[in-house]
Design goal:
The complex is a heterodimer of chains A (about 350) and B (about 325).
Chain A (H helix, E strand, L loop, with lengths): L6 H18 L1 H4 L3 H27 L6 H19 L3 H26 L4 H21 L1 H4 L5 E2 L22 E2 L2 E2 L2 H25 L1 H11 L1 H7 L3 H27 L1 E2 L1 H5 L1 H14 L4 H28 L6 H5 L4 H15 L3 H8 L5
Antiparallel strand pairs in A: 1-4, 2-3
Helix pairs in contact in A: 1-14, 1-17, 3-8, 3-11, 3-13, 3-14, 4-5, 4-11, 5-11, 8-11, 9-10, 13-14, 13-17, 14-17
Chain B lengths: L1 H10 L5 H13 L2 H32 L6 H18 L1 H5 L3 H31 L6 H23 L4 E2 L9 E4 L2 E4 H23 L1 H11 L1 H6 L4 H27 L1 E2 L3 H16 L4 H21 L4 H15 L10
Antiparallel strand pairs in B: 1-4, 2-3
The chains are: A mainly alpha (about 350), B mainly alpha (about 325).
């Protein structure tokens, strides 16, 4: 009995499928604006985290430039939608441009630095990403600077758009949900994210995925068997960059706003890292679990911490530490403890349970 | 052509690079007084960056540990020194140069002590369990960086903090039509002193011999019966203390500091270490001076390019020498 079909793996798979179902019916299950916002963010981050997991979990590459690719996709779409006006042609042009830039940069970084030590690569990606972040906030004519860009999404996704009307010409409701453009936008996000996730899932199950794992486990041996490690690494780095770029385009269309804080900042990179580690490196299932937990924590944990800070306001220090602004502190501590004690993350640890020895 | 290469190598090889950059800049700038000001500024900046980067490079060379949390020490040093200086504001304003120097000395010492203590804590609690596991090392030190930054935010708050300077370091010396800020000269001299001290320790003392041997071949040093793990803690604490010292100097240079200082400096420090070659003090000094000079010259000649200049410099040097200018780790 392998790890793939242990009882633990079954639990993980059922959990992920439940999450998938919840996301599929999210607009009907949770009928308020904020929940839909959360659901869309989860969809996009699942793709982003899964593509990052391709690097860190499957191939053993640590890159800090993943938000940069996310940002390329987002800014591509944003600039195109702003300049060309809302339309599908702008989305196509922007998305493709973002992907092209991502690809070129990924190839350049990969060929230049993937042959050196992992640590060197991590430093170089960090340097490149931070320079791009600074450039994005400096070239304000082009990128809107710190304020970012607001623009309109294609006609179909406007809240005022009616997908179906009843006899009176009003928006038709299905189980109490208005069939308007917001719903179409959500399902666009969901469907594209699902497609990208399934593609990556297929990729790691393919012979290519096995080669990547071989490189992670023992680089010298993989090279000795006859696999060109640098080519494979560069290839997977490009694939991950493209996926991140597409995720960025999707999120840009959903948010109708692109700025350095939401798309490029280093805190997004930290979020992705946390998601991968919490969910479990080296399993695509883990990406889903990590993304869901982190996004939920981001939206709801802060409220909880605010309440806790108020409840303890009479005690010294505690309220300061429980301040909602300090939530990254706690996540950081959880992150360190996880890396120490559960390096395989939630999904990895559960999947190990119930393996017949 | 071959003769030329040999002559260059005899004269110092890559060490001539900053001189070459300065010469090219002299031609491009054309105004000697601006050039002198910029060169001094570049050297001072380079020396401060050297202070921050040397610890990172040493620790990597000896321990094969890359501490992504290194920049937390830079901000920590800056804030500790700034707090001490604010606390001793009365001494700073006094006419007596003795009180001035004492205040500065106390501020730098406080930063150093915090750096040593923080380094000890960091090494034993955070890094010890993940030796030899690069992936987890990167993740753990990154996590530690997040926690440390948040703690600094919790203690000192998010608003920028003004840093008072001692009276005797204010102002500038004016030679002809060249004016040179005194603080820059001080920063340069302090950096130089630290470099000389490090160089002598590494090359002339027994401890230095052990450290260099550890960089070359750790197992062999252990086999000869030396407790290399104790040496590790020592070097790590020293490296962290140098970072806090660099941060403290930087705080006085900027005079207005915010908690994002560490994150901003981290990128520069990384670029310096990559350019210089990991693990060597000489390389780090070379890289730091290059970054300082190029940053200042480009900032003057083409202000719009200033941000990308470090990046372009790093790319160019990596194309030319993939493992940095003077790497110690083969």
């Amino acid at each position: 009995m392998t790890e793939q079909n242990s009882t633990g793996a079954l639990i993980v798979k059922i959990t992920v499928l439940t999450i998938g179902a919840a996301l599929l019916f999210a607009p009907f299950l949770f009928q308020d604006v904020r929940s839909l916002e959360v659901a869309a963010r989860i969809c996009v981050f699942v793709v982003l985290v899964a593509s990052y997991d391709l690097l860190i979990g499957y191939t053993g590459i640590v890159s800090f430039a993943h938000t940069m690719f996310f940002g390329f996709g987002a800014y591509g779409a944003a600039i195109a939608l702003k300049q060309m006006g809302p339309g599908w042609d702008a989305v196509m042009v922007g998305g493709l441009a973002g992907m092209l830039v991502s690809l070129v940069v990924a190839v350049a970084i990969g060929l230049l630095s993937l042959r050196v030590k992992a640590i060197f690569f991590a430093m170089i990606t960090l340097a490149v990403a931070s320079v791009v972040l600074v450039l994005a906030s400096q070239l304000s004519d082009f990128t809107g600077g710190e304020d970012g860009i607001t623009y309109r999404a294609p006609q179909l996704f406007k809240t005022a758009t009616k997908l179906a009307v009843d006899e009176d010409g009003k928006v038709l409701r299905l189980f109490g949900v208005k069939l308007n453009g917001k719903l179409a936008a959500y399902y666009f996000v969901f469907a594209t994210s699902l497609a990208l996730f399934v593609l990556m899932f297929r990729l790691v199950g393919s012979p290519l995925g096995t080669v990547l794992k071989a490189i992670r486990e023992n680089e010298a041996r993989a090279e000795a068997i006859g696999y060109r490690v640098v080519s494979y690494r560069t290839f997977v780095f490009c694939i991950a960059a493209l996926a991140a770029s597409l995720a960025g385009t999707i999120y840009a269309i959903w948010l109708k706003y692109t700025g350095p804080d939401t798309m490029l900042s280093f805190s997004i990179m930290i979020d992705i890292l946390l998601m991968v580690v919490i969910g479990g490196m080296g399993t695509m299932w883990g990406a889903v679990i990590g993304a869901v937990l982190m996004v939920l924590a981001q939206y709801y944990l802060r409220d909880l911490m605010g309440a806790a800070a108020e409840a303890t306001s009479n005690l010294p220090i505690l309220p300061e530490l429980l301040n909602p602004d300090r939530w990254l502190l706690w996540l950081g501590i959880i992150f360190i403890l996880l890396v120490y004690f559960f390096p395989r993350g939630i999904a990895g640890t559960i999947m190990q349970k119930g393996i017949a020895k | 052509m071959k003769n030329l290469t040999q002559i260059l190598a005899r004269m110092g090889g890559v060490n001539l690079l900053p001189v070459a950059v300065a010469a090219v800049a002299f031609v491009l700038i054309g105004v000697p007084s601006s050039w002198v000001t910029l060169t001094v500024a570049g050297l001072a900046m380079g020396m401060m960056i050297f202070l921050m980067a040397s610890g990172l490079s040493l620790v990597f060379g000896l321990m094969d540990v890359l501490n992504f949390g290194h920049s937390a020490f830079v901000s920590l040093g800056a804030f500790v020194a700034a707090s001490v200086l604010t606390w001793l504001a009365g001494w700073l304003g006094a006419d007596s140069i003795f009180l001035n120097v004492m205040a500065l000395f106390l501020a730098l010492t406080a930063a150093l002590i915090v750096g040593l203590a923080g380094g000890w804590f960091f090494e034993t609690v955070i890094i010890r369990p993940v030796y030899k596991d690069h992936l987890r090392q990167i993740l753990i030190t990154m996590g530690a960086l997040i926690v440390a930054e948040q703690l600094i935010l919790a203690v000192w708050g998010g608003t920028p903090m003004a840093v008072p300077r001692p009276q005797f370091l204010e102002g500038a010396i004016i030679l002809g039509d060249v004016s040179i800020e005194i603080y820059r000269i001080f920063a340069f001299l302090l950096g130089l002193a630290v470099y000389v001290a490090l160089y002598l320790t590494l090359n002339r003392t027994r401890i230095g011999l052990l450290i260099r041997a550890g960089v070359e071949n750790r197992e062999m040093v252990e086999a000869l019966g030396f407790r290399i793990d104790r040496l590790f803690i020592g070097v790590f604490m020293l490296g962290s203390a140098l970072a806090t010292l660099g941060g403290a100097m930087w705080a006085g240079y900027e005079t207005l500091i915010s908690p994002s200082l560490g994150a901003e400096m981290m990128i520069v420090v990384f670029i310096v270490v990559i350019i210089g070659g990991l693990g060597s003090i000489e390389g780090t000094l070379l890289g730091a001076i290059m970054v300082g000079l190029v940053g200042n010259y480009v900032g003057f000649l083409m202000p719009k390019m200033a941000l990308a200049s470090n990046m372009i410099l790093m790319m160019a040097i990596l194309m030319w020498r993939p493992s940095g200018l003077r790497p110690a780790v083969k």
